[in-house]
Amino acid sequence: MRALVFADPAAKTRLEGITHPLIRELTTARAAAIADTGEHPYLIYVVPLLVESGAWLNCVGRVLVVDCSEVTQIARVMSRNGFSREQVLAIMAKQATRAQRLAVAHDVIDNDGPVEALTAQVDQLDRTYRALSAAGVTRD
Q: What contacts 62, CB < 8 A, 6 or more positions away?
């Protein structure tokens, strides 16, 4: 499927036309159910194609980008998925650039180092998001 949609723009558009509305509908329903419980001070959506789709930018109050250098990104995808460098670069060419993702970010987690380095960043953002929620800030 991945090979088809990255090779055929029309197939990609058809697939997104089917999956994206269903994903948004399901996500919206689940988010509403979570919000109705009142148990959580904030909600984080994981939207891999946030910049490309555009629609999600209007649905969220803040954008958090987990960022790493392109060198790190390429190495990780090659290792995780067994793709060649050329395959990874071809996929990246069809996606928003790092600069485009960072341009919409309110918050950034630097994910270039070891996983242990993430804890302090995540803890700080949790404190920030809890404070914003307590202050009733839903958009920034």
A: 106, 107, 129, 132, 139, 140
Residue 51: other Cβ atoms inside 10 A: 20
pLDDT at 125: 97
- Per-residue pLDDT reduced to its tens digit, 7-65: 788 988 898 889 989 998 999 999 999 999 999 999 999 998 889 887 888 888 999 99
Closest CA to 70 of 93, 47, 49, 103: 93
- Distance between the two ends of the chain, CA-based, in angstroms? 37
Can you tell me the distance from the alpha carbon of 6 to that of 52, in angstroms, rounded to the nearest whole number? 14
Helix and strand element counts for the chain (H, E): 7, 2
Tell me the HSE value of 64 on the side-chain side, using a 13 A CA sphere. Answer: 15
pLDDT for 48 equals 86
Secondary structure letter of residue 54 according to DSSP: -
User: Is pLDDT of 2 > 80?
Assistant: no
